[in-house]
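Query form — protein rRNA methyltransferase 1, mitochondrial

QUESTION: What is the three-dimensional structure of this chain?
INPUT:
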Amino acid sequence: GAPRSRDPPASLPQGPEAGRGSRTGRELLRAQQDFPRAGKGKGPGRNAVTLERTKGSEILFGMAPCWLALARERRALFRLFLKEQRGGSGRPLRAELALQAAARGVPVLHLPGRALDALCRGRPHQGVCLEAAPLPFRSLRDAEEPRRGDGESGRRLWLVLEHIQDPMNMGALLRAAYFLGVDRVVATHSNSCPLTPIVSKASAGAMEVFDVYSTDDLQGFLKAKIAEGWEVVGTVSRPEEVEDVPVISCSEFQWDKPLIVVIGSEGEGLSLETQLQCHRMLSIPPGRALHPGIDSL
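ANSWER: The structure tokens for rRNA methyltransferase 1, mitochondrial are given below.
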């Protein structure tokens, strides 16, 4: 899986504009006095100072993840980093982010674009990074049943992710689940990608507003939900490899009771133990003859 961010301290260029107008920025400028000025010394680090990260923090990047993290405040927030704008007022959304951060007591630093590149290791940040505490999975023991309207009890839909390890896939699944109205997402605790900044970016920020739960006993969890009257369906890319569970196309599937859809890992799919818990398996037929090596959506 993708480990939580443990980035080393990032290198930030010198300059009087760095961190203008914030307490943290003044501290950074004081620290610069102990380093040679730009153009002096040798080596690629001659223009850089070191920014100490808050212990255990990570760097969110991109407009949507940072905006929604500030709006929801589900995690501790330490500093907002914005790309400095020379000779202009800057982009309105960044100015609004700065106001949001100030209202929440989060220091704001204005830095050159290459400094933000260093903070997020060259990932696409759109001129915005946010230092924050990691966002953990929530425990199912603390979960409350979503409130449903009359006649909706049979339309509950949960998504279960078994051993999803690619953070881009995890983020895409969370984004789709949130948009399509999935009531709850549950991931296996072991052998799964944690909720990293890459996941948040790939989810277009949905991870910041959508609780993601975890379980360390997937089989026990599924058995308990089946006993409560839920239907469990798995997903499969190669129907011919499934022997003990009926497989149907998504276009033929109908449901009239609470439903759990289980998606397996990128390389192995669903484990045999999980397949045997499923009432049915779903497949999405391809719209063309697939090239070898491409077998799923």
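ADDITIONAL NOTE: Confidence is low (pLDDT under 50) at residues 1-49.
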